[in-house]
Amino acid sequence: MATSQNQTLVTLYKSLCAQQDALSSAIQKATDANVADAISTENYEVMHRIVLVQNLLFQADSPELQASVKAVKDASGQLESAIANIQRVTDFINGVSSYLELVDKAIDLAKTLAPLAA
Amino acid sequence: MAAGLATAFTEVAHLILEAKAQATARKVALATDPQISKILNLLAAEIGDDHTNVCLRTTIYRVWNTEKDALGGPFLKASDQTGKKAIAQQYATILAERAAEDESLAGLHHSLLALADAHHALAQGNDASVLASLTVIVNDLQRSHDLYAQFSSDLKSKN
Description:
Chain A is mainly α and 118 residues long. Chain A has four helices and no strands. Chain B has 159 residues and is mainly alpha-helical. Helices cover 88% and strands 0% of the residues of chain B. Chain B has six helices and no strands. Chain B starts with a helix and ends with a helix. Chain A binds chain B through residues 1-3, 5, 10, 13-14, 17, 20, 23-24, 27-28, 30-34, 36-37, 39-40, 43-44, 47, 50-51, 54, 57, and chain B through 38-39, 42, 46, 54, 56, 58-59, 62-63, 65-66, 69-70, 72-74, 76-77.
């Protein structure tokens, strides 16, 4: 039984939640149904990763994982710009995809680490 | 899942009540109390005491939010008031389901902490505290049951 959550994965979880909040806000502001649906599809993709990270919160940490999550944090600014320019749907979807590629790398790394010791 | 958890809590509560009368059981409880307390507190922390921190309650709350947000497109596409009203009703149902599940998890969080208290009281030979903590668990289970019954009834009346 682990004593505490992996703080690197906590950072990843919080980053995903922040992006999901931005997507949720964008859906509420959308006036075009197709745009709202496109954002919603990406929202489900982000939610899927939040669930995955939730299940990995008690994995051990590593320098590689820390570097991978740092790359996610660095990319989050680009995604925020993509969300801000939501009417350019293709750019928006590409922005989310690039961000999630980095998230998936971090998740795959975390899966290979051992559970935290008690 | 809720029924299984309720059964598990009831069984543990019965075991603690049975152990209360046995000196050997109390010795075992005293010896294991730090570990049991640690495990139960960790489980409670994993569930979480709200739906904003990094915990299971937050994740589940956000799953419901994703479902709620997905209604944005269909609402904009609905061409008349009847269609928009139907989407609005789905939205309200999701909010109610989100609240019910979060309340249920809050009860589970509370019950785990009460179970840790009951075990500690057993280890200390404090019968009054054992009963008080087990009463908290029973009340939490009853509240969850009532909430589920009310929600099921509301859903039936809407359909």
